[in-house]
Amino acid sequence: MDIEDQKLIEKLKSGCEAAFDELFRKYFRKLVYFSMKVVKSKDSSEEVVQDLFVSLWEKKHKLQLKVSLKAYLYRAVYNNSVQYVKKQQRFVNSSGLSDDLPDDYTDLLEQSELEERVYQTIEQLPEKCKEIFKLKRFDELKNREIANQLQISIKTVETQMTRALKYLKKNLEDLILLVISLLVIGN
């Protein structure tokens, strides 16, 4: 995790408003643009991100991050954006205005379900293997940085990453084949 973010999180947990303001300024605009890829509306995206920050402030004392703050925020915004789209779909369907959701939204909902399956499979990895995988893929650390942080050899990092990837490939094989078949059929 970014050391600066880690310090801000610790301050936030103790109720420091200045730390919250700094996190908000650092990430708000980036998260809004990220949300817009899903929600397709700047105003709605701003609402989604503001709601996330309100929730972050309300739950500050209980905050337990297993990934970097950046990864947590982006994942939360993505999930909240998809939820927002689902709520809009239910509203539109219940009002009788339209039964059809644009293909983009349907694709995003399916993508969210696929991602959820991948994340669940990652959580099933052995503890040390999962920790190394997350540091490598989510926190984007280099093998040497992981080895130094965990006080293990670079070879151990490489071995654990190989095990993680084999496990994911084996346990997501049906999902991979499904995605490939959808790509082939779609073209």
Question: How would you describe what is shown here?
Answer:
This protein is mainly α and 187 residues long. It has helices at 3-13, 17-39, 42-58, 69-95, 103-123, 127-137, 143-150, 154-171, 173-186. It has 2 domains: 1-115, Rna Polymerase Sigma Factor, Chain: A (Orthogonal Bundle), CATH 1.10.1740; 124-187, Orthogonal Bundle (Arc Repressor Mutant, subunit A), CATH 1.10.10. The protein has 9 helices and no strands. Helix 2 (17-39) runs antiparallel to helix 3 (42-58), helix 2 (17-39) crosses helix 4 and helix 6 packs across helix 8.
What is this structure's SSE topology?
Elements: H1 3-13, H2 17-39, H3 42-58, H4 69-95, H5 103-123, H6 127-137, H7 143-150, H8 154-171, H9 173-186
* H/I helix tally: 9
CATH superfamily label of the largest domain: RNA polymerase sigma factor, region 2, helix turn helix motif
Dominant shape: flat
Helical fraction equals: over 70%
- Integer tally of domains: 2
CATH class identity of the largest domain: Mainly Alpha
Keyword list:
187 residues, mainly alpha, Rna Polymerase Sigma Factor, Chain: A, Arc Repressor Mutant, subunit A, 2 domains, 9 helices
